Amino acid sequence: MNYVYHAYGLNIRSDLELPLLLPGKGNPDVTISYGTVPDSLPDVKGKGICFQAAKGELLLNVPNVAKYLIKNGDTIIIERHPETDADSVRLFLLGAAIGTLLHQRGFLVLHANAIVVDGGAVLFMGESGVGKSTTAAAFNQKGYAIAADDVCATVTF
């Protein structure tokens, strides 16, 4: 099934339901689909524990969850581990994979949460597990809207 969403100023067509995103319409700028993802990339320029990077591509391998191939700022292909649930696939898709895609498109991408304050935004940045989401949730309980969770992005000039 195809779903259409709007996020980060982009129309996104996805094979995976993404209920945290706003509904969208129109021609897609980004396509997210299930498919076969290679175990490695040719001409690797950088690599880490669970990723490989080549020109215009990043391969993210999350053990027992999925492999994600992010290409050219407009395509994410997901090869889901057969025993994982959709929420786990979404977690890495909407974090690291979307963050990579936005970076490929020229966005400045920050690992942060944001709340709305007086028509602007306040961001909470830091390493994983230091309390960004907890802090944003506490502000939300005090009436502040949450603008972003985990990935904050803006176009660079």
Provide a descriptive summary of the structure in words.
The protein has 2 domains: 3-105, no CATH class; 109-155, no CATH class. With 157 residues, the chain is an alpha+beta fold. The mean pLDDT is 92. Strand 1 and strand 2 (10-14) form a beta hairpin. 18% of the residues lie in helices and 42% in strands. The termini are far apart. The protein has helices at residues 86-104, 132-141; strands spanning 3-7, 10-14, 22-23, 30-34, 46-47, 51-54, 57-62, 66-71, 75-80, 107-117, 120-125, 146-148, 151-155. Strands 3-1-2-4-9-8-7-6-5 form a 9-stranded mixed beta sheet, with helices on one face. Strands 10, 11, 12 and 13 form a 4-stranded antiparallel beta sheet that branches. The radius of gyration is 16 Å and the shape is globular.
Average pLDDT, rounded to a whole number, is 92
Estimate what percentage of residues fall within beta strands: 35-45%
Tally of strands: 13
Structural class: alpha+beta
* Tally of structural domains: 2
The helical percent reads 10-25%
How many helical elements?
2
Strand order of the largest sheet: 3-1-2-4-9-8-7-6-5
Cα separation of the termini: 36 Å
Which consecutive residue ranges, at least 5 long each, have pLDDT under 50?
Answer: none
Shape: globular
